[in-house]
Amino acid sequence: MQEFHNQTDITKKNAFTQTQFINWQTQAKAYKTYPKFYRRYNLDDYEELRFIKNFGKVTYSKKYGNDEVKLRVNPSAGGLYPCEIYIQIRGIKKFLNGIYHYEPLEDSLTLIHELSNDGLESYMNIKQQKFIFLLSNVYFRTSWKYEKRAIRYLLLDTGHQLGSIYASLVLEDMEHLFNFKFKKKQLNKAFSFDKYEHFVASIYSSEYKDIETNKLRDNIPFVPPCDYYIKEPFIEEFYSHSYHKSFDNLKINFLKELSKENLQSAINNRRSVRAFKQEAITKEEFETVLKDVFIIARKYNIEIFFINNLIIGLKKGIYKEFQLQEEGNFNDISTTLAFNQKIGGTSSATIFFTSKIRTNYSLALILSGFLAHIISLRATNLQISSTGIGAYFDDITQDTLITSNNILYLMAVGK
Ligand SMILES: Cc1cc2nc3c(=O)[nH]c(=O)nc-3n(C[C@H](O)[C@H](O)[C@H](O)COP(=O)(O)O)c2cc1C
Fold first, then answer.
1. Which GO terms describe its molecular function (predicted)?
2. Which of 11, 109, 321, 351 would bridge with 100, disulfide CB 3.0–4.6 Å?
């Protein structure tokens, strides 16, 4: 996997090759729609299913001339939204047991497969569940703009999308288990994805019946996930390599410290900051935002650094977790690292997610996105702004942090 990472580095030498101009008229469609004649269900009509709206609902609309851009609860590199969500549901009153496709812009579910004695459980070696949430990537939505470097953004976006699902389940007190190790290849086939779309992660919640299930009795029909598609062999190869890795189940306990009202309001109000006013945040606030993040990160071989630009009560400088590595003012360097984006240097802190070479690369990217999402919700709750930063110099960041780790993601936090 290291080769895939190396080939997508932004460095001092190759920076000039980064896409400078993009014609937004050619953007691929950012959501999949099954045909009109499929049965659809509005989430507002089902009390027990309303929580699903928090997975991806629209929370802000921006107008650019005649175009309207709809921003969702989950952030996405370039606002391109490459993730699709499929949900298998059992045992909800007046609701068919089936596999549904989630339509975030419509707050609705489309029935794509009715269950009998079959189900997704058979691809995961688990007993019947009330809910199984499956995440796929439609990679062209992102590679359209970011070309090969899209491999990173796709998995970071996946992590954020998992974070949105996780927060929604916490809000409902629903137990949940993340599972990255299921028969993705077989499921891609059963959903007729034909390499246009790739399953990447699943979460399941609430055991339903102690019953074994069979494989899906029919394949789900192919429906194109975009209005057009340009295939990228490099990215398809990347996904095919991810299959061979074994992933752990992930058990975590974040966001339970927030009241239900505050969590819902953080979900509704999270936004990526576009410019900081450069007001300071306190050490206590920063620690609250990061509570237990280092511990979980470490468990999965992610090493977190940060540069303190403007946190009161903490010496300015470069930190590895909370250990000061080098004291000093690094505002300008922080901007440079973030591919010369000002948000990198005007933040109170810019956080760096890194992982050692030879750790599970795909999982490290997904988890970095997930942890960044937790940070963003906690920060929103404290009226602190944040944004993920996927465009950064790999080589200068490694030199500045004095690490040979892969740099996976940056996150700017501040006011
Ligand atoms: C993986 C990832 C990478 C991102 N990279 C950048 C970046 O380099 N610079 C930036 O200003 N915003 C970045 N963003 C923020 C997105 O532009 C933002 O999420 C998107 O426009 C949607 O807006 P929202 O987050 O306010 O809903 C990134 C977001 C994600 C999830």
1. oxidoreductase activity
2. 109
